[in-house]
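Protein modeling request. Please complete all fields; requests missing the sequence field cannot be processed.
Requester role: graduate student
Desired output: 3D structure, token encoding
Chains: 1
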Amino acid sequence: HIGDQAQHVVCLVSRLRQQDDKSPPRDILLAEHNSLDRRMFERLLKHAGHKVYSVEDGDQALDALEGHHFDLAIIDLEMPIINGLQIAKLHRFTHAAHHWIPFIAITRQETPQTVRDCEAANIEICLVKPVQSSELLKAVNAATSQEARISTCRDNSLSSTEQHNKAEANSHYLQLLDISVLHSLEKLDKNLDFLNSLISTFIQEGESYLKKMHQALHHRQYQAFTDKAYLLIDSAGQLGAFALYQYSLIASRMRPDELNKKGPEILNHLDTLFIQTRQAFEEYMTSHDRANTDLK
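Delivered output (296 residues):
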């Protein structure tokens, strides 16, 4: 289990708590297949003062690494065609050690094998989705410091302010949304336009994922079903839709024989949960509109 890796892996929580989330401006390559994640990470990094070049697949990432020397590369391990591990290994193989750049891997697979794979590819830090804003910024600072080393963990702790905000949030939100995630996203823009656009993207893509999951189940294409469930997990996690995230995770782990028996029931529940999550986002945004109106 993960604990067996303790001698080789430093928990990111303890390491990052010693790091400031501010670092000098860096030239960063961001390779992320999920469009919602990519937009959020790019906006966060630019807001922190970094210059970001973002791509959506492994081929584009390798081209970018050949054409420019970045201070850091942030790569999605689950990208199609050429995945993040292959990118890191190819870069290490084709460049002398003193020309290496640090890598941060982002993955949905929190397993001992992922840790071993990252170590083998000389990846400095591995983060597990959903990645919080402060977590990513601290990882950037840690990875670009001279003391960076391979580490993996997730910091789910909340500050006292975030806990207070969570306690005072509407009870309906608390059943479906992690308000602290939305508060952190609000800080990336002076108004709510960016958050609103992320929610709109989430709704549009989520409807598409669910439709394709229905089609995959109907045609008994179980791998396609699982792939779309993973995409729904990523999107829900990044926006703090924890109820949808947790149930999508359950759906992604079902075996083909389980999907044959319970697949339609699972999907119907996911459909209902998605509608409730969309309504919760709409209510959250409406409450902010009212609050802004009252202040004027």
